[in-house]
Amino acid sequence: MNKNKAVIFFITFLMAVQISASGTLHWKSISMLNTSASLQKKKVLYFSADWCKWCRKLEKEVFADSEVSKFLNDNFQLYHADIDKEVFVEINNSFKSISELAKIFGVNSYPTIVFLDGENNSLGELQGYYDKENLLKALKFVKGIKPE
């Protein structure tokens, strides 16, 4: 009986690990923005704040979705810029704080997703909360995938 319980526990544990890993985004440190290895892959720069309820909703409901996280991980380099953190980023041969970086990219509300090319030129941004369907449409557009 104890052996059966152990097997059931182990299987349940493996399923839980698999489910939690399925919606994990591979964020890079914002301080590495200027030193990206690949100039071919477009970048997603996600600006958020600890106090932002829409940021938390986006993270818990949309970024955690396995389809969204897979598309983001497979097609973009991902950077998270928390406006409440004191981190400096080298861009255009000078160091900028996260708030200065936000100003450079025209971020004035949270959440905001800025899309960059391989040389850190802005390709556009999404301001505010987007549900799964609309975020995937926007991501596919930036990636160059035509709507079905």
Brief account:
With 148 residues, the protein is α/β, with parallel strands linked by helices. It has 5 helices and 7 strands, in the order αββααβββαββα. The chain has one domain (25-143): Glutaredoxin (3-Layer(aba) Sandwich).
How would you characterize this protein structure?
- The chain has 148 residues and is of the alpha/beta class.
- It has one domain (25-143): 3-Layer(aba) Sandwich (Glutaredoxin), CATH 3.40.30.10.
- It is 41% helix and 24% strand.
- It has helices at residues 2-22, 53-63, 66-75, 98-104, 132-143, and strands at 27-29, 42-48, 76-82, 88-91, 94-97, 112-116, 122-127.
- The strands form 2 sheets. It has a 5-stranded mixed sheet.
- A hairpin with a 2-residue loop joins strand 4 (88-91) and strand 5 (94-97).
- The relative contact order is 0.18.
- Mean pLDDT is 83; it is low at 5-22.
